[in-house]
Amino acid sequence: MCGIIGIASNKLVASNIIQSLKKLEYRGYDSAGIATIVNGEINEKKCAGRVENLEKMLFKNPSNGSLGIGHVRWATHGIPSKVNAHPHSSDEVSVVHNGIIENSNELKKDLEKKGYKFKSQTDTEVITNLLTDFLKDFDLVDAINKTLKTLNGSFALGIIFKKFNNIVVGARRGSPLAVGYGPEENYLGSDSYALKSMTNKITYLDDGDVCVLTNNKIDFYNSKNKKINKEILILSDDKNIAEKGEYKDFMSKEINEQNVTAKTCIKEYLDQLRKNINIYNFPINPKDIQKIVLIGCGTAYHSCITAKYWFEELTNIPIEIDIASEFRYRKIKLNKKNLYVFVSQSGETADTFAALDLCKKNKVKTCSIVNVVESSIARSSDFVLPIHAGPEIGVASTKAFIGQMLVLYILAIKISEVRKEISQSDYEKKINDLKKLPDLIKKTLNYCQDNTPIIAKDFLKAKGAMFLGRGLSFPIALEGALKLKELSYLHAEGYPAGEMKHGPLALIEEGLPVVILAPKDRYFEKTISNMQEVIARGGKVILITNESNNIISENIRFTLEIPKIDDYLTPFLMTVPLQLLAYNVASLKNCDIDKPRNLAKSVTVE
Ligand code: AGP
């Protein structure tokens, strides 16, 4: 991913552009650049390495101008270098880009035949010369439209013009782009992180949209070049977002906003127009990956276990998972052909950061899946995939778990597609199923609100509890047990249902609550048999399924029937009742919901 910023102002813009680029370095930082309009000319400065190198250049040789664009790069086409850094400028236009232009080679050949020279190896420079060429024969709007229609692939663009030197143009297809409204200036950015230090009034572009910014207005046009109005969102700043609102505590807010955070996350990664997942810029070509290692702690580790099943089903890549505090001390054989993925909500967990550091010291490729993009883990990774869940304040992780699983699932589908290990129709079906997920999470939340408080009563006098599942439900059983433990201080164990007969069945006694996760997947019958074994020994079964017909239910204490969904997506819906169950048991026991005893939100020590 790369980071884009643009500002149209009535005052000098260079320092604001630099400050915003620093916020965007999680998207890539192998090179950086800025272009402003100074005395009617395009003034471009760029460098290899971090934004601070660009800042040092500007200290020595300031970029004046009240209109400009900036960029931090994660190399896709062309090595990380000054010449390949963005912006890419001609005498007439300057362009910054996030995305991949799939037909750049043929366009480059056509432009070279017309006499255009190329300085860089990037696909972005093709956009620069193509737009310059169209501007010779067409007015601004037509030239922009013809350029965009000629491009195949995905882009978020920021463009400035010598002749139209009071506007910044933005265009989105498949890569996120937003605008911000300021006092006598307006902003363009890859996401709200880049803009929130300058404004809290944001509009997100949709695929196909074009925006034209001056210092006192922003106009929007859709893919049919029709002027449109777009909603202005008021971004509450972190402390506002971290307000409970009408909720009793942060955890209930964070559980109940999971359909919204899931929708936001999916929107960030799905190119709606082209039905594509817009993750590229992998630090290692997915076709060359020999193994993927998923590493995390606690709930984040559970998301890794879930992802192991998805990667195994969707790709031919061997997958390993590890708890960060173990990984960091193993005599592990690190391999440059492997991709090491670190999952962390806070991005500051000491064990996870130490495991990442071990990989960096051994120069292997790393990716982090985080909720805090300015975090240490994000800034130290070769590649960052945010989960876009918004600040999570409750110590017990809920919406972040859904976000972590979402990004891991989307990553597995994308890697499978790049390696051609999934058919195009299956790829599109999975994308369509994903789009239904937020509404089904909402439906599950509504369904569980009333019955989990009743079920919770069964746990009040219990000596402990068991959570059992097979396949994709096994890590969810672990997560359900962890939620109950950390919120209500009741001992609980998650276990593979098939493992019970190898010892833990001895724990089953009259009245012990046992939560059985049995969606109608290929493990269903076997899990139901395990459930019968538990009932035969007096266990009090709470069955969570999406197919309760023809299950003998007289000895089942409670059955929760969640909505049907593609097997791959059942972990998301299975998680919701377990979160609410733990929440209600803890509430009945008057535990501190948001700050359970002995715990911390981010474990920044070993
Ligand atoms: C989850 O409910 C816990 N609070 C804990 O297990 C947490 O998931 C773990 O400490 C990892 O935190 P991180 O995601 O911020 O790295």
β content, as a range?
A: 15-25%
Distance between the termini: 31 Å
Tell me, what's the shape? elongated
Q: List segments where confidence is low: pLDDT < 50 over at least 5 consecutive residues.
A: none
CATH class of the largest domain: Alpha Beta
Instruction: Report the strand count.
Output: 27
Helix/strand-derived category reads alpha/beta
Number of helical elements: 18
Radius of gyration: 26 Å
Oligomer: single chain
Largest sheet: 8 strands, antiparallel
Q: In CATH, what is the homologous superfamily of the largest domain?
A: Aminohydrolase, N-terminal nucleophile (Ntn) domain
The small-molecule ligands in this entry are: 2-deoxy-2-amino glucitol-6-phosphate
Tally of individual domains: 3
Look at the structure and give the mean pLDDT: 92
Give the helices and strands, then pairings.
Elements: E1 3-9, H1 14-23, E2 31-38, E3 41-48, H2 51-60, E4 67-73, E5 88-89, E6 93-101, H3 104-113, H4 124-137, H5 140-150, E7 153-161, E8 168-173, E9 178-182, E10 185-189, H6 192-195, E11 201-204, E12 210-213, E13 218-221, E14 227-228, E15 233-234, H7 238-241, H8 250-256, H9 258-269, E16 270-271, E17 276-277, E18 291-296, H10 298-314, E19 319-323, H11 324-327, E20 338-344, H12 350-361, E21 365-370, H13 376-380, E22 383-386, H14 399-418, H15 424-456, E23 465-469, H16 473-488, E24 492-496, E25 513-518, H17 524-536, E26 540-545, E27 556-561, H18 570-588
Parallel strand pairs: 18-19, 18-20, 20-21, 21-22, 23-24, 23-25, 25-26, 26-27
Antiparallel strand pairs: 1-4, 1-10, 2-3, 2-4, 5-6, 6-7, 7-8, 8-12, 9-10, 9-11, 11-15, 12-13, 13-14, 16-17
Helix pairs in contact: 1-2, 3-4, 4-5, 9-14, 9-15, 10-14, 10-16, 15-18, 16-18
